[in-house]
């Protein structure tokens, strides 16, 4: 019987995925648990396995197509004896695959549709080509397809866009671009055509998802911001004394981040409201302290999560950070690695930044940054001294937190960090 292989939820805030490489093609036999397709999301790349044994009947989502969670990736004709889909991230059995003549919702806009390549009475093209046409505002009826059976190809679209750019704007024939839905309370952003001395850079799936999530956060969460200066002179001396021996013994670097994260976990217990989320008509307190850490990957970032961070020592946090950062940059994180975060921390100081205003991660109450440590002349006991100073910045959801609670939290963070010194245990 036909089995619809759908895209399951891969993370809490992931609503779609981009199809990477198909490892099987229509007509190929596939076994249950056998690798079938690579899926890329804004948070993690996943090699999805087949939930059943059978023969690939149809690839519903070609490589490069953005598929919403619940969208059909492929249709598999199960063996007669059938098989039960595994619990490991695989979708539950669905009804038979939809008729191939039906249109599929475009990832660019819920009301826009992409006609399957085999449909009759419509311009023939693959979903990838249809998406490209929508992005460039191309009316495909104006293009003669050069592909098999008159199918419009990717190159046909690119050639048309290039020739259109060379013509005067008054005679360019285009269809209106389907604008992305604006987040509540935000202004829709029009599509902008680059000028002659400009270049359009296509959005990667990760960058597109980051843009949507951050725009939604700023549009729906009333942000507020506060900052404290922290004297970390004692912490600097402690780390300098321990770092070489720690690297030799543990095999990972001892940075400032695990020290601050240890303090953060302790302080969240004192101020549980910061470890919460907005529930519409309620505030939802989180009983576990799962700290997300923002990892820079060059052109984008990802936020893997250290679960139950309050149960780990400084050394344990150092190992957890090193492991997640390495796997994030190698694109080997699992969906579990980027799910369940209750509070996010960003070490912008590693980039040399001294002051920042982070955006609250969707579904959380606040985000903290630790900035670069710099030596400054400060007044200590009515005398001028050179001290190592670090700024800590907090952005928070003003629906949940006010200045009193957030200020108290930051004072407690400052006091705890400034006490880190020679007697601080790291195990």
What key phrases describe this protein's structure?
427 residues, Dihydrolipoamide Transferase, 7 helices, 4-stranded antiparallel β-sheet, Chloramphenicol Acetyltransferase, alpha+beta, 6-stranded mixed β-sheet, OB fold (Dihydrolipoamide Acetyltransferase, E2P)
Q: What order do the SSEs take from the amino end to the carboxyl end, as H and E?
A: EEEEEEEEEEHHHEHHEEEEEEHEEEH
Poorly predicted tracts of residues: 82-122, 167-186
Assign the CATH architecture of the largest domain: 2-Layer Sandwich
* Total domain count: 3
Q: What is the general shape? A: elongated
The N- to C-terminal Cα distance equals 56 Å
Which oligomeric state applies?
single chain
Spatial extent as radius of gyration: 26 Å
Mean of all residue-level pLDDT scores: 81
Describe this structure in words.
- The chain has 427 residues and is of the alpha+beta class.
- It folds into 3 domains: 2-98, RNA polymerase II/Efflux pump adaptor protein, barrel-sandwich hybrid domain (OB fold (Dihydrolipoamide Acetyltransferase, E2P), Beta Barrel); 106-188, Dihydrolipoamide Transferase (Irregular); 221-419, 2-Layer Sandwich (Chloramphenicol Acetyltransferase), CATH 3.30.559.10.
- 24% of the residues lie in helices and 25% in strands.
- The chain has 7 helices and 20 strands.
- The chain has helices at 127-136, 154-166, 205-220, 233-250, 257-270, 314-329, 403-419; strands at 2-6, 16-22, 29-30, 35-40, 45-49, 54-59, 66-68, 72-78, 104-106, 109-114, 223-231, 276-278, 283-285, 291-293, 295-296, 301-302, 305-306, 343-346, 366-380, 383-397.
- Strands 11-20-19-18-14-17 form a 6-stranded mixed beta sheet.
- Strand 9 and strand 10 form a beta hairpin.
- It is elongated and about 85 Å long.
- The model is unreliable at 82-122 and 167-186 (pLDDT under 50).
